[in-house]
Amino acid sequence: MSEPAAEAAAPAADNKKKKWLMIGLIGGGVLLIVLSVVLAVVLSHGKSKKGQSKAHDTEQQAEEGDAEGGGEEHADAEEHGKKEEGHEKPKAEHGSAEPEHTTETHKPAEGGKPGDEAALKAEADQLKQDIAKLQHEMDQQTEMLTLSDEAAKLKSEINALKEKKASLEGDKQKLAEGVKQIRSGEKKCAISGNPDKRLDELRACLGMSQHGESKPGEHKPAGDSHEVHWSYNGENGPEFWAKLKPEWKVCAEGRTQSPINLVGKFGSGVPALSYEYKSSALTVVNNGHTIQANVAEGGGVVLDGKRYKLLQFHFHTPSEEQINGRANDMVAHLVHKSEDGKLLVIGVLLNRGKDNPVLKPVFDNMPGKASEEKAVPNAGFDANRLLPASRNYFHYDGSLTTPPCSEGVKWFVLKNVGNISPKQYDAYTQLYPYNARPVQAVNGRAIVEN
């Protein structure tokens, strides 16, 4: 190579060396930055494993000379966020680098901490165990409730069977006594030779119901095998009467049901009611729902020229009728019937007070068991003596207050209240502490008073 050419090539070689030197410096700087980032990530990851939550910001300026560089430029480095945990400070890297500021804040490692994951898993397992325990307890409670419901049904069925047994035993005794009376000639009955009709004819002759059918105006014995059992509470209570038997749907659908609350302004135009009662013997019956006294020949009343014969009277406690929202201790319902089958009921309200001698034959002879009855031939019962001296009343059209809740009943509720002694009241409520139907909707009915 010629000298001029060599002189021309020398600057090019110098430029080439400077170029590679510049590339080396730039590469070294990039490498330094990468190493710093990696170091920061490693330190952050290590500290997150230890669960440290506080961040310490430390600023440090240091000027370090490069002892091995001999004339190389000294770089000022500012290092931030270096943690002092017993480790030596890392020496400054050779070469010039931009000051690096690092602020470390405790952040959970991506994907969650291993310690936290273990704790969460343990907590989830505990929750699963608690849920399983609660489910087991709920299953036990459900099983207990099911057993309780089954026990209640069995108890109800047992009570129904007991009532049926008592009714059959009562019928057996009545039939046996009736047969004795027929054989002795005390009673005459027309009994045919047809064996299929003989029992019905004997029951009719003895005044017993035919196949569980009550006499007109009477409550049906609770233990009768041909009657659906109803009561004043529970699943056979008043709110369910209409569902117990199709013929009883009027108990819910009727528009003139009884009893009612007698409140508000009342009209006039009261029909004339005359009393034609007379002394009579009684038969006191426990019919499974109340104490009822059947009247042999006790006279009756006359309404608008129509005569209604007194059939029986029975009791409810508390009184079913209310006056201005208030019930009395008891009520006696005197049930009458006309020749064309229409019913009329007179309600006599009673409160505890003086002894009631008129009702003494009834309260002294109350049978303790359903379907039992006691004859009181010398009762001398006269309904005139049961009614108060002042016989003003409320009058409205209503229904029977027990199934089948038949409507078209003429109701007269006397305003003045009679008495019964606490002893008489207690004797009755020991048998029937509560046997009152709730008051029913008036539905715009006319209520009159005198």
UniProtKB/TrEMBL annotation:
Its EC number is 4.2.1.1. This is carbonic anhydrase. GO terms for molecular function: carbonate dehydratase activity; zinc ion binding. Residues 117-178 form a coiled coil. The chain crosses the membrane at residues 20-43. Residues 71-116 have a biased composition (Basic and acidic residues). Residues 60-70 have a biased composition (Acidic residues). Residues 228-450 form the Alpha-carbonic anhydrase domain. InterPro entries: Alpha_CA_prokaryot-like, CA_dom, CA_dom_sf, Carbonic_anhydrase_a-class. Pfam families: Carb_anhydrase. Keywords: Coiled coil, Lyase, Membrane, Metal-binding, Transmembrane, Transmembrane helix, Zinc. Belongs to the alpha-carbonic anhydrase family. Residues 46-116 are annotated as: Disordered. PANTHER family: CARBONIC ANHYDRASE (PTHR18952:SF265).
